[in-house]
Amino acid sequence: MTAQLSRRSLLGVAAGGIAFAAVGVRPARGATDDELAYANFGLAAAYLGADYYARALKGAKQTGAGRTLRSGRSASLAQASALSDLITGAGDTPAATEDFEFTWPRSAFASAVGTRKTGFGVLRPTLAAYQSAAASVTMASYRVLFASLAASVAQQIGALGGPSEAAAPFPPALDLEAASAALESYLG
Amino acid sequence: MRHRLAPLVLALVVIAFAASAASAPAAAPPLTIYAAASLTEVFKALDPAESYNFGGSNALETQIRNGAPADVFASAAPLNTQRLFKAGIVDKPVTFTANRLALIVPKSNPAGIRSIYDLRSKPVKLVVAAPAVPVGGYTLTVLRKMGLSGVLGKVVSRESDVKAVAGKVALGQADAGFVYVTDARPVSDHVTVVRIPAWAQPRVRYEIAVVSQSPNKAAAQAWIRMVLSAKGQAALRNAGFLPVPKSST
Questions:
Q1: What is the DSSP letter of B242?
Q2: Quick one: which of B95, B157, B183, B210 could link to B179 by a disulfide (CB 3.0–4.6 Å)?
């Protein structure tokens, strides 16, 4: 993985975190059911992503991959923070990472290739759900937020996969049911 | 000689027996435990000697507030115990277990529900608990989190506790109902469980407290310690309850 994680991709991941963190999410009690549903799913996916990076880091030691994984983890935590703000602003109580018992296959982090594959398994359905969210939510500020989240996750996929992945087309958009099913085995 | 001693020996035996009976400690009266309906099977199995009153935690809270003679209150939501604690009616509650929600459908599944999202698209007779009952409140949370609040328009019955919801679905009187996963087990011959995603689960925490006016406070405290012990926690886990999350301790 190390060789494929260039300085440019590292910066891309870090920038992704900053980009959506700067998006102003207008607290709104009038958030629709769909907007809240995407936010709740996204929050769980963001915590899952942070857990993925933390576990991947344990196997990465002091390499360039380690630095990139740390950036990915920061981006995931920033996503979680933005989505928590949205949910709180809508008058609901956001989930905490302690509410989940993430489950990983035994071989998930056994090798660099396996670690990367696991990351794709988490990030691609998340990106696919954010694409649907950006297309379907009604409030402009939420649309910008979900588009930014999608861009950040896409950058993370590019960083994990290197040039070949960066040039790959986006995964097809998934509705919440399909995206949820794709992550269910990890979310416990 | 032998003949003459016999009455004396008999008298001594009778006196000794009477003395031992008098000095034996009197059996402690059973505790009166008010507990959420979802705890019915596990509490009875854990300690069948006590006297139980199971029901919706909101109804039990009201009864205790009105002076019902409970020694212990175990609620399916912190709200009920905390309100009584703030009113000085129970001692400080502790969290002792957790749970998850599930959707159950009759084995025959007449509405053809395979996913919780099917509630939105199919004609369904849905049964839930009333909003004031903990499981009813948790159901609203799940539906809101999943963007499915619209299915509340398909509710045909709002029950007073989770057992009533499970019973109606098991009997085929409804097409689907929201219960705790632990309440699906006792009716597993009659229902199929449809999983609710982890990201949509509410934070279901159970609390337990001694009723402040209990005349059996020491025994009530000991009983709560038993529920919190390795034995009590193992019984809860075996019944499908979840361990207390670290953030709740």
A1: B
A2: B183
Model confidence, pTM: 0.85
Q: Residue B120 has which token pair?
A: 């939105």
**Terminal CA-to-CA distance of chain B, rounded, Å?**
73
Contacts of B60 (CB under 8 A, 6+ apart): B34, B35, B36, B53, B70, B73, B75, B80
Across the strands, what pairs with B180? B101
Instruction: Please compute, for residue A40, the number of CA atoms within 13 A of its CA located in the half-sphere on the CB side.
Output: 31
- Numbers of helices and strands, H then E, in chain A: 7, 0
- pLDDT, tens digit, 9 for 90 and up, residues B118-160: 999 999 999 999 999 999 999 999 999 999 999 999 999 999 9
- CA gap B110, B106 in Å, rounded: 8
pLDDT digits (tens, 9 = 90+) for B194-237: 999 999 999 999 999 999 999 999 999 999 999 999 999 999 99
Q: Tell me how crowded residue B204 is: count the other CB atoms within 10 A of its CB.
A: 23
Interface of A with B (CB under 8 A): 32-34, 36-38, 40-41, 43-45, 92-93, 95-96, 98-100, 176-177, 180, 183-184, 187-188
The residue among B171, B99, B159 whose CA lies nearest residue B129 is: B159
**Contact residues, chain B, for A183 at CB < 8 Å:** 199
How long, in residues, is chain B? 249
Instruction: Please give the structure tokens belonging to residue B189.
Output: 């011959």
pLDDT digits (tens, 9 = 90+) for A9-31: 433 444 444 455 545 555 445 67
Q: Which residues from chain A sit within 8 angstroms of residue B147, using beta carbons?
A: 32-34, 36-38, 176
Residue among A32, A44, A177 minimizing CB distance to B198: A44
Of A34, A41, A177, the CB nearest to B199: A41
Output phi, psi for B67, to 5 deg. 95, 15
